[in-house]
Design a protein that fits this description.
globular; Protein-Tyrosine Phosphatase, Chain A; alpha/beta; 423 residues; 2 domains; 8-stranded mixed β-sheet; 17 strands
Length: 423
């Protein structure tokens, strides 16, 4: 296919090239990687986990960038534009760079079929090599062991948390999922675990392969004190750090995980305390307890599984509203809606269910049926469209009330897209 086609045309084609949207396994990606001669010489950081991956990548990008390093970052999914997934020095990849990368991959793959995500992963690495970055940060898409990013060997790998999500692919227990996520660890290299209750399977795998395992609470920790915090590592201590700009107690753990990586790689990527402080203060990520309006206050959060919902509930309790908390929720059908509602129902005074724009979305009425089992006393309204539901919630909000929109990247994206159009 000629590279002159638009990015939209390429993305539509990539969605159709492979018989399944997700196919875990590295053999096909490895063949095309080798055909392309993709052998990055710069340090690679892989970031996996059930929740907190995007935030941890953002902290790493901000701190390394503040130190003067040329960063490459690959994340997923995106909110508004595919270009968000690939950044060099904090700048999103252009349409033409993405199109050219896809064209080169298409020419090199021969009869090897690749998924949408696999094309994207190879395309991102190609751009990082071409740009001559000093360090690349790759977010795991699904699991770890068989995810496309794992075709590249990590100089340091992070597992931010382990909980129940994507169970059709990864298993139905934390032990099974933990083993899949531990697959990004490498022998003799730093393996950061930021989950305070790591599954035994993850610890055993790290031990069996001889990874340099560094655990939160044992080898590194975040100690909060008087509006700031201290990172305590195995060999370094960084005091008087600013609290993360992103809200939520769990963000301190994500920031500490990022610092554990920087501690482990400090001989290859030296960092000053000043760069660390500057990066922590600057790091922002859309859709993570993001306030987009006031009077009434509107907060967006992509929380879509029980662990993320528990963290969101804790943040709501830590930052109480003067009035009520109203919620607009839209979720995908393969998510544990019951587990999410069990975690959040005590924090919400009124609900609107909706249906995000995705073929995988759960019908708003069906979502309301699940919600009623957990929020028996709170009123529940059904509105198929995300922004129509938000408009109804705004119209019913009183002084001091706040509105939370959550449940999926698609739900948050619908609000951000609508806001951008109507600015």
């Amino acid at each position: 296919m000629p590279p002159s086609l638009s990015l939209a045309a390429w993305l539509a084609r990539l969605e159709q090239l492979h018989p399944s949207t997700i196919e875990l396994g590295l053999d096909r990606v490895r063949r095309v990687r080798d055909a392309l001669g993709l052998e990055p010489a710069f340090p690679l950081i892989l970031v996996g986990g059930t929740n907190g991956k995007g935030s941890t990548c953002t902290y790493l990008e901000a701190m390394l960038g503040a130190a003067g390093y040329k960063t490459g970052v690959y994340t997923s999914p995106h909110l508004l534009r595919y270009n968000e997934r690939v950044r060099v020095e904090g700048v999103e990849s252009s349409d033409i760079d993405l199109v050219q990368a896809f064209g080169r991959i298409d020419a090199a793959r021969g009869d090897t079929s690749l998924t949408y995500f696999e094309f994207g992963t190879l395309g991102a690495m190609m751009q990082f090599v071409d740009a001559g970055v000093d360090v690349a940060i790759l977010e795991v898409g699904l699991g770890g062991r068989l995810d496309a990013v794992n075709v590249f060997d990590a100089d340091a790998a992070v597992v931010t948390s382990v909980d129940l999500d994507h169970m059709d692919y990864l298993g139905d227990t934390r032990e099974k999922i933990g083993l899949e996520k531990a697959g990004i660890f490498r022998a003799g290299r730093p393996a950061i675990c930021a989950d305070p209750r790591p599954p035994a399977s993850l610890l055993e795998h790290a031990r069996n392969i001889g990874a340099d395992l560094r655990r939160v609470g044992r080898d590194f920790a975040a100690e909060r004190e008087d509006g700031q915090w201290t990172y305590r590592g195995t060999e370094v201590r960084w005091p008087a750090l600013p609290l993360p700009a992103m809200a939520g107690a769990y963000q301190l753990r994500n920031a500490a995980a990022a610092l554990a990586v920087l501690e482990a790689l400090r001989t290859r990527l030296p960092m000053s305390g000043q760069a660390i402080r500057k990066g922590l203060a600057a790091a922002r990520l859309p859709g993570r307890f993001q306030r987009i309006a006031r009077a009434p206050e509107v907060i967006l959060d992509v929380a879509h599984n029980p662990e993320a919902a528990r963290a969101l509930a804790a943040t709501l309790r830590d930052q109480p509203a003067a009035g009520r908390t109203l919620a607009v929720v839209g979720m995908l059908a393969d998510k544990d809606a019951a587990g999410v509602f069990a975690a959040l129902s005590g924090e919400i005074d009124a609900w609107w269910t909706c249906m995000p724009d995705s073929p995988r979305a759960r019908d708003a009425a069906a979502l309301a049926g699940i919600l009623r089992e957990h929020a028996e006393s709170a009123p529940i309204r059904v509105q198929q469209d995300v922004n129509a539901a938000l408009a109804e919630a705004r119209s019913e909000a009183r002084e001091g009330d706040r509105i939370l929109v959550f449940g999926s990247f698609y739900t948050v994206a619908a609000v951000l897209d609508h806001a951008a159009i109507h600015q």
